[in-house]
Structure to design on (287 residues):
């Protein structure tokens, strides 16, 4: 297993210290700002370790800003173990304060009625530049003091279909899409449904809120707007593998009250495998 994928799996694979208590470490992905995707992925792993069923839905709220210089405690509460469904609540805690809370529902896989909407058509990932290659093209526009932070390689391989320039934003449609996969195959000892789901939960928060910023020509990167994830929901529909290409198709339907409503759909081999929704903060900064 290569170092980038191993570091991601190790980050998400929280340590169990009691039956329903887990501890997670942090990474300095965005400096001192704790990445919301980390909370989503770690909370999903913590809750999943208390049941033998895969997650089918997760509803989360980001309550306080987290710190990257402190570990995180995940307190899991077993609300129900039924014949078909199991329900868990998870609180992420730092310095005695709850910074994140989520409800997760787990279900035994079963067969039933099948329908899905049509997958959007985009160029194949192999024909597109990677996120890292696109960052190299705009390197001269990135403030010097941010070069190291911005140019670091993200934990997953991403090939944007509709790239944008965060330091020179222009008004555009409220849509975004990119392909994603891990850099290496997930090894046998970590090849579990909860790890694949946790990695997608982690990634799903990465660019989703940018869709509601695009119609306004503003960006989180150039200092014109304060943006953050407020809540985040995932619904898992089918089995998938994060070490194969997935398409993440995103759009926003409305912005109002300094908030944006964002939606995402993850596809693999023509199948809709996961749906995402999120409300995000998008508050203009005073000049």
């Amino acid at each position: 297993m290569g170092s980038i994928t191993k570091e991601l799996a190790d980050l998400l694979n929280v340590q169990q210290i009691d039956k329903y208590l887990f501890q997670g470490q942090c990474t300095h992905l965005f400096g001192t700002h704790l990445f919301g995707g980390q909370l989503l992925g770690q909370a999903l792993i913590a809750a999943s370790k208390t049941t033998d069923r895969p997650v089918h839905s997760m509803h989360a709220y980001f309550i306080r800003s987290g710190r990257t210089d402190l570990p995180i405690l995940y307190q899991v509460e077993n609300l129900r173990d039924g014949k078909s469904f199991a329900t868990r609540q998870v609180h992420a805690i730092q310095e005695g304060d709850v910074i994140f809370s989520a409800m997760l529902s787990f279900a035994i896989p079963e067969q039933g009625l099948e329908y899905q909407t049509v997958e959007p058509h985009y160029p194949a990932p192999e024909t597109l530049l990677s996120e890292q290659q696109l960052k190299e093209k705009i390197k001269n526009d990135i403030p010097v003091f941010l070069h190291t932070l911005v140019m670091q390689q993200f934990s997953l391989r991403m090939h944007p279909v509709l790239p944008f320039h965060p330091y020179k934003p222009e008004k555009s449609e409220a849509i975004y899409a990119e392909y994603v996969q891990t850099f290496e195959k997930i090894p046998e000892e970590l090849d579990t449904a909860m790890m694949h789901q946790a990695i997608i939960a982690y990634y799903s928060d990465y660019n989703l809120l940018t869709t509601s910023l695009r119609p306004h020509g503003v960006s989180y990167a150039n200092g014109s707007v304060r943006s953050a994830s407020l809540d985040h929901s995932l619904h898992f529909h089918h089995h998938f593998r994060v070490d194969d290409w997935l398409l993440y198709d995103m759009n926003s339907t409305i912005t109002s009250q300094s908030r944006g409503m964002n939606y995402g759909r993850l596809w693999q081999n023509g199948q809709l495998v996961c749906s995402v929704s999120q409300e995000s903060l998008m508050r203009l900064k005073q000049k």
Remarks:
- The chain has a mean pLDDT of 93.
- The CA atoms of residues 7 and 155 lie 8 Å apart.
